Amino acid sequence: MIVMKFGGTSVGSAESITAIVGIVASFSKSGKSPFVVVSAVSGVTDLLLASARKALEKGVLVGELVKGIRDKHSLLARQLGVPEEVYFAELTELEHVLFGVSLVRELTPRTTDRIASFGERVSARIVAAFARNNGLNARAFDAYDLGMVTDGSFGNAEILPATQALIRKAVKGIPRGVIPVVTGFIGRTGDGDITTLGRGGSDYSASIYGAALGAEEIQIWTDVDGVMTADPRMVPDARTVGVVSFEEASELAYFGAKVLHPKTIIPAMEKDIPVRVLNTFNPSGKGTTILRTVSRDGSITAITSKKNILVININSARMLLAYGFMEKVFSLFSEYRISVDMIATSEVNVTVTLERKYDVSGLVERLKEFANVTVLPGRASISVVGEGARSRPGTGARIFSVLGREGINVEMTSQSYNDVGVSVVVREESLNEAVLALHGEFFGGVQGKRAVKAAHRGKVKFTRG
Ligand code: ADP
Ligand code: ASP
Ligand code: MG
After folding, report:
1. CA distance 431 to 429
2. Mean pLDDT throughout 138-155?
3. Which structural domains are found in the chain, ordered by start?
4. Contact 159, 187 (CB under 8 A)
5. 231 in ligand 1 pocket by Cβ < 6 Å?
6. What mean pLDDT is predicted for residues 84-110?
7. Of 63, 68, 71, 9, which Cα lies nearest the Cα of 40?
8. Which atom from ligand 1 is nearest to the alpha carbon of 277?
9. Measured in angstroms, how far is the CA atom of residue 95 from the centroid of ligand 1?
């Protein structure tokens, strides 16, 4: 069996759905038993979440909100020759839930997740119906009917220890020869509440199914040629990396490479199942294969970045040589359920970065009881990732000298525990320039603003690595 996950843009138009059904058919013909996981049609999850918020407004017409979502799908369905009946029940249910929100003017995390779930529930039905029209024995399933049981952390749910066994049991019940087309992103608690695994979570769903079912391979089909040396939207000459280790892929995903949800690698790594990242719009490309070990010749694998970062600086001279400073600091982060990305420490200082989505006011008040605290918004982190990056002499020096040359101040640095990355924090307004300059340094190509200017003056030649 192979698990094949298709992201939002891969199910975003009639052409792309036609393409993915062709891809599934060719794997099916070669005897690979596809297990298909799909995301919502691109833009639909955002639209659903916006509709949920709008339903709270006075005088809103719920029918209008549902119409926006229905129109988006009915256009697709019409182009594909799929009858709207296949997802009629889902849209009716969505309308009822939005009515409920608008009536009581209350939107809980539980209801938000239920509303967000409709994107995948509808897209799975459209894809399965279109695949059937094209001669495949496909059937749509909601993940929770195939064992995807989670805890009740709405918006960021986690699977339970029993989940993998429940998945195996449920999937055994599917008749032989049927190609399941399953909703990514969603699950359900033991009490029957629908949950979501976090934005971009369909990758994680695919990996959970892959691990539970002992798949030969987990394929993530998306809109780029694989994991690239940088986000191609920021670095136009970024190129595809052929092989990436599990550790490198995790580091890249945690530090901002949107191509994979950060948790995707965990289930695959546990069962040692290769993950491949492939391009729906270039299916004959090699893509990227993510494996347990790769041999690096000392080169860097990729550069990734994260915007909307807050830096919190916690200083306490009083705590010099005193026990328990770190414990005090981090127990507060845990009490406020705030997860930190990077940490740098000295005897009397702890500096951390975290995503701006957190409200840190309560935490900061508590920290101020025993430390001087400064909060710096508007920061971005950049991570230079590659097996052995930290221990390789010169990586840090190269990062500093390139950024220094560009006049970009590094406000914090941190190294990953497993020697696969070095991260730095810069001001958000310098981010693009910094990433371009670092990509130029490690991979060749245009090397940042100053280098571009110098090149125009004929002093520097552009290089390609
Ligand atoms: P999907 O809808 O298929 O899940 P996403 O938009 O979530 O697709 O992820 C694919 C996008 O990730 C790409 O279009 C690209 O802009 C972005 N991306 C960021 N960093 C990287 C990287 N290092 N390699 C490849 N893509 C990246
Ligand atoms: N549809 C969900 C989202 O937009 C999940 C996913 O695409 O992976 O976040
Ligand atoms: Mg994604």
Report:
1. 6
2. 98
3. 2-223 (3.40.1160.10), 302-456 (3.30.2130.10)
4. yes
5. yes
6. 97
7. 9
8. 25
9. 32
